[in-house]
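Weekly structure sync, notes
Attendees: PL (lead), two postdocs, one rotation student
Agenda item 3: pending single-chain targets
PL asked that the sequence for the first pending target be pasted directly into the notes so everyone works from the same version. It is reproduced below exactly as submitted, 205 residues in total.
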Amino acid sequence: MRLISLFATLSGAAVVTCAGLPAMAQLPAAAPLASPHFKAYRINPGDDLEVNVWGEERLQREAKVLPDGTFTFPLAGQIDAAGKLPGEVAADIARGLKAQYRDNVPTVTVAVKEASGLQFSVAGKVKAPGTFTPVRYVNAVEAITMAGGPAEFANVDDVTVLRKAGSGHITAFKVHLGSIFKGNPSERDLAGLPELESGDTVIVP
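Predicted structure, written out during the meeting:
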C-alpha cells in the first residue's frame, strides 16, 4: 500500500483499489483539435475539370479551362468558369442544357480534377526562384519558403507582390515580412499577411 500511495503522490492521479489490487486511474481525454478552415477553391484558367450529367454518358466530359477563363460544353455552349466555385459552374451548365429537355435537367456535377491553373512566381533574392503550382492557397511567407527562403542580403521588409487585375492591368503592393522571418511577428503583421492569388508574382529585393 505504501508503493501505491507513493505512485499516487508522484503522478497526481487518483488510485482506486479493488480487493487489495491497484487499478489504473483514467486520465481525462484530450480535447479535440479544432478543424482548420480552408478557403473554398475557385476555378482558374488552366484547371482540368470533370463534368458529369447524371444518366447521360454522352455528356460526361473532361475540360481544360482556357486562358480566357472559359471552356465549351456540348449543347450548353461556352461556359465562363474562372473565379467561380465548381457548384456555380455546374449550375451554369444546367441552365445551358435546359432547352434540350422537356422535363427537369439531370443533375450536373463539376469537379476540379487537377488544379494546375493555381500558380504563382517568386523572383529576386530567394534561393530557388521560379513558378510554383501548389495544391492549396498559400500566403506570401509560404511562397518565399517554397522558393527556398530569402537569399543572403534579401530585404524581406520591402517585398512587392504584382497582381493581375484583368484586361492586362497589373497592380502592385508592398508586404513587410521582416518580423515574421525573425520569428517575432505582431498581431498586426500577421493580420496584414496577404494570401496569394493565381498569377501573382512575389519579388524579393
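Discussion points:
- Residues 120-204 form a domain with the Outer membrane lipoprotein wza fold like fold (CATH 3.10.560.10).
- Residues 86-97 form the longest helix (12 residues).
Action: rotation student to compare against the earlier draft before next sync.
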